[in-house]
């Protein structure tokens, strides 16, 4: 398999999404290390990027150090992604694959969970780059059917009847509840909006599996994506 990343094709935009404490950051780091070991030109990104001017305002809000109107903070999250849009495109066209911890889907799902109109939430994201692959880490108990095995269109209530198990798993992870959005009832609403945002680029991985098993699945998905997208044009989010 051609590893891509500086071998004549563009890089892949790979996004990891999921609820708080679902293991995204750990898996991003592991995937980044694996791809670098394979010789792929790869970088790890994270949104919000708290090092930018806008990102510092977001960080203060998330740490409960400041108060902002829901629409204001939503627009700041979007602006934080727009700050990096040009650099993101340049990196991808130059052959660098980006592993991104959260992206526009988080912004829309979290704001819609606060009661904002989902169409309004999507509007500021129009024009941002579309990922080649979105990996959703689904935290599920071992004896429940993973979301990846379910036909969502045929069972729209599946996510709702399994939410209590999902959040028990998330809450078991250390440090849960330390930031503004890490509250179980709120995360339930976020999960429902994530579900509504799924498209053909999404792959759902059962995050309750052993870390090594999840890691192997992510490696395969990423390598296939990198190989397949080298000759594809970059596109914008289909919103």
Automatic annotation (TrEMBL):
Taking every annotated instance into account, which residue ranges of this chain make up the domain Thymidylate kinase-like? 16-144
The cross-references to InterPro entries, in alphabetical order and at most eight, read: P-loop_NTPase, Thymidylate_kin-like_dom, Thymidylate_kin_CS, Thymidylate_kinase
Q: Give the EC number(s) under which this enzyme is classified.
A: 2.7.4.9
Q: State the Gene Ontology terms under molecular function.
A: ATP binding; dTMP kinase activity; nucleoside diphosphate kinase activity
Keyword Transferase applies: yes
Question: Keywords, A to Z?
Answer: ATP-binding, Kinase, Nucleotide biosynthesis, Nucleotide-binding, Transferase
Q: Name one GO biological process term.
A: dTDP biosynthetic process
* GO cellular-component term (any): nucleus
Q: Which SUPFAM superfamilies match?
A: P-loop containing nucleoside triphosphate hydrolases
Q: Give the pathway.
A: Pyrimidine metabolism; dTTP biosynthesis
**What PANTHER family does the record point to?**
THYMIDYLATE KINASE (PTHR10344)
Q: Which family does it belong to?
A: Belongs to the thymidylate kinase family.
Q: What is this protein called?
A: dTMP kinase
């Amino acid at each position: 398999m051609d590893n891509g990343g500086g071998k004549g094709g563009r890089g892949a935009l790979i996004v990891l999404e999921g609820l708080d404490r679902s293991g995204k950051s750990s898996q991003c780091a592991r995937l980044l290390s694996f791809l670098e070991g394979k010789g792929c030109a790869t970088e790890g990104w994270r949104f919000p990027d708290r090092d930018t001017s806008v990102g510092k305002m977001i960080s203060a809000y998330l740490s409960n150090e400041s108060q902002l109107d829901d629409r204001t903070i939503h627009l700041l999250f979007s602006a934080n992604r727009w700050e990096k849009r040009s650099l993101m495109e340049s990196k991808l066209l130059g052959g660098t694959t980006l592993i991104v911890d959260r992206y526009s889907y988080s912004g829309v799902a979290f704001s819609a969970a606060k009661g904002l109109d989902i169409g309004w939430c999507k509007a500021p994201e129009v024009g941002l780059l579309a990922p080649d692959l979105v990996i959703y880490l689904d935290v599920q108990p071992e004896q429940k059917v993973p979301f990846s095995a379910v036909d969502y269109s045929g069972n729209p209530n599946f996510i709702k009847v399994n939410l209590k198990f999902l959040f028990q798993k998330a809450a078991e992870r250390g440090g849960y509840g330390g930031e503004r959005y890490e509250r179980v009832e709120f995360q339930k609403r976020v999960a429902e909006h994530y579900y509504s945002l799924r498209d053909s680029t999404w792959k759902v991985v059962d995050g309750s599996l052993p870390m090594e098993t999840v890691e192997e699945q992510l490696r395969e998905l990423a390598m296939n994506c990198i190989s397949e997208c080298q000759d594809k044009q970059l596109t914008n989010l289909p919103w």
